[in-house]
Amino acid sequence: MASSRNNALEFSSAGSIILSGAATSSGSFGAIQFLKDSTLSGTLTATNVSGSASLLTTFGAGTIIYGNFTTVQISSGLVALHRV
């Protein structure tokens, strides 16, 4: 079994970034957690998610998407980007 930080769910030890309104962030993120209804738009770069362009939509509060994300842009809402 792989021993990556993502598999161990060690997000809390690496920290998080909060995005609100219309904002973009770059880094190394293992999860996007939607704290309020939010819309992903424009730029979403994921190294291990097939069809990531289809994720450019609105997600309800409480949704969590896992993957290797390097750039995340929202047009509205509130999200936590969990670093890995």
Features:
84 residues, Jelly Rolls, 10% helix, globular
Q: Helix count?
A: 2
> Helix content range of the residues, please?
under 10%
Q: Indicate the proportion of strand residues.
A: over 45%
pLDDT averaged residue by residue: 87
Unreliable stretches (pLDDT < 50, length at least 5) are none
Q: How is the main sheet built?
A: 6 strands, antiparallel
What is the CATH class name?
Mainly Beta
Secondary-structure class: mainly beta
In the CATH classification, which architecture applies? Sandwich
Kindly report the CATH topology: Jelly Rolls
Radius of gyration: 12 Å
Instruction: List SSEs in N-to-C order.
Output: HHEEEEEE
State the strand order across the main sheet: 1-6-2-5-3-4
| Total beta strands | 6
What would you call the shape?
globular
* Multimeric state: single chain
What is the count of structural domains?
1
Distance between the termini: 18 Å
In short:
With 84 residues, the chain is mainly β.
Please tell me about this protein's structure.
There is one protein chain. By secondary structure, the protein is mostly beta strands. It has one domain (5-83): Jelly Rolls (Sandwich), CATH 2.60.120. Helix content is 10%, strand content 56%. The chain is built from 2 helices and 6 strands, in the order H-H-E-E-E-E-E-E. The protein has helices at 5-8, 11-14; strands spanning 16-20, 23-34, 38-46, 58-59, 64-76, 78-83. The chain has a 6-stranded antiparallel β-sheet with strand order 1-6-2-5-3-4.
Topology:
Elements: H1 5-8, H2 11-14, E1 16-20, E2 23-34, E3 38-46, E4 58-59, E5 64-76, E6 78-83
Antiparallel strand pairs: 1-6, 2-5, 2-6, 3-4, 3-5
